[in-house]
Amino acid sequence: KRKPMIGLQPEGDVDWSTYRGVLVVVEQRGGRAKPVSWQLLGQASRLAAKLEAPVMALVMGSNVSHLAQEAIYRGADRVYLCDSPELENYRTRPYSRVCLHVIRTYKPEIVLMGATYTGRDLAGAIATHLPTGLTADSTQLEVDDERLLLASRPAFSEKMLATILCKQFKPQMATARAGVFEALPRDESRTGEIIPVPPQIKPEDIAVEVLEFLEATGKVNLEDADVIVAGGRGLGGPAGFRLLEELAAELGGVVGASRAAVDLGWISHDHQVGQTGTTVRPKLYFAIGISGAVQHVVGMQNSTYIVAINKDPQAPIFKIANYGIVGDLFHIVPAITETLRRR
Ligand code: FAD
């Protein structure tokens, strides 16, 4: 039992021991879940095993019941499902009302969401209403012997890793970066419980009506890509990225970049991989003309296969690469693209 801070929670002793388990809020669009949701379910399973507590998932949206079963295959023991036409498009109030209802009714001790635009918005709205603490943009999530969530995130211009605890209140909440945690292998033999949750929507919640949803074009989606062909200063200029685009097109992948290439204005920041860019976890990552600075490596080291192409045999990138090609990228990259085209 911990005495809550006056003014934030009801005065008097609150028995936080009734809060148990780890809840992951599954983010989806158009019935397709964001990979970060399954990655968080993987990490939630690891935390819940230490806590000897259940793994829960919350699925919200319209025509999303298939995702409830999918969440069980991905590690959930229990899924709260709110499937309603009013939830077709994300809006803060209707979505946060469902979340608040589930949290207040089923009392998870930890709530996790992706640090996406939606996750950041929703987590903040919920945390203020409960109210409890929230660690945003975590890159490490552990639990200690006192069942406290240790959520760590880069701080002070990424120079430090801060570990943040919410000692007084439950649930302990965190958003976490995509690509950092590993999803469990999909297991169709897993079974679990699906609990329908009614939409908690009130007329005043529908302050904004979404008439049409248009996906932004031209923006690269590194987080969801299976193949990333990334280039750095070794490309020598923006024209070098054309070679990478051709290779990426053959592999059905997208183009990434080091910060050096972005800072030089050769490619836009949404392509940047690394500590101050996007953390990625593709099946195949090409690092071309990239030296392998630690700030780049932290953003891509969890890729399944890393192929490095660099003319310097001592480049640090070769220490983490599964396959290394020492040589001039301007000869090697077109040769790989041409070979793939001929197949
Ligand atoms: P370089 O280190 O200059 O490497 C270029 C490489 O290309 C060399 O290894 C060279 O041998 C090779 N090369 C040159 N010509 C050829 C050729 N013809 N064929 C083959 N190989 C060739 N960096 C990031 O990438 N992402 C981040 O998010 C990030 N965040 C940062 C945050 C902070 C707080 C700080 C201080 C730095 C950050 N950096 C980040 C910068 C990082 O430290 C490096 O400066 C950067 O990653 C270097 O980019 P690069 O590998 O493209 O360039």
TrEMBL record:
Keywords: FAD, Flavoprotein. Pfam families: ETF, ETF_alpha. Its cofactor is FAD. SUPFAM superfamilies: Adenine nucleotide alpha hydrolases-like, DHS-like NAD/FAD-binding domain. Residues 22-210 form the Electron transfer flavoprotein alpha/beta-subunit N-terminal domain. GO terms for molecular function: electron transfer activity; flavin adenine dinucleotide binding. FAD binds at residues 233, 258-259, 272-276, 289-296, 310. Coiled coil: none annotated. GO terms for biological process: fatty acid beta-oxidation using acyl-CoA dehydrogenase. Binds 1 FAD per dimer. SMART domains: ETF (SM00893). Belongs to the ETF alpha-subunit/FixB family. This is Electron transfer flavoprotein alpha subunit.
